[in-house]
Amino acid sequence: MNLDLDNRKGWPDDLRILLDAYPRNVWPEHANLGDMARFWLHIHDQFRSLGRDLREMGEAFREGHMEATDYRAWYPRRLSQFLGGLEGHHSIEDYQFFPVFTAAEPRLAKGFEVLERDHETIHAAMVAAYDTGSALVATLDKDRDATMKAAEQHDAAGERLLGLLTHHLDDEEDLIIPLILDRGEGPLGLA
Questions:
Q1: What is the Cα gyration radius of the chain?
Q2: All domains of the chain in start order, with CATH
């Protein structure tokens, strides 16, 4: 089975061993869903929300509901916040959390390796979103056709990033939250 982020359709059976025991519908009320797990899920939801905000602002600008000066004032800062936060979050996961989870449940080691590769794929999409976003901002004082062409290129890069990220976040949660529910935050060293 190809587990690359572009091709993956959820986890194979050998990586669903805990997800099958702890499906998403039991997570919110489970006694082992502690503060750290709730905080981590909240951070993921913030990335989803900020991604939607960036998409909506892009649409508003393209459709003429936002002036170039307002877009220039708002968008680069939000994009940098989104990308910087995402990069930091992935570093913490790769170097702190994934090794802990792999040691706690070696049967899921392949899944954590896949998630680390996802981070590399997402990083490349982040670079493309940043580059096309910078190119778009650089065209804001130029003719409308050049700006709209740059906006289309940035939208394509942004949609790719958001699609990859959403898929990755869902799969990451499906691997990690069941492990936390099964073992508890304290025994995993997370509390």
A1: 19
A2: 30-188 (1.20.120.520)
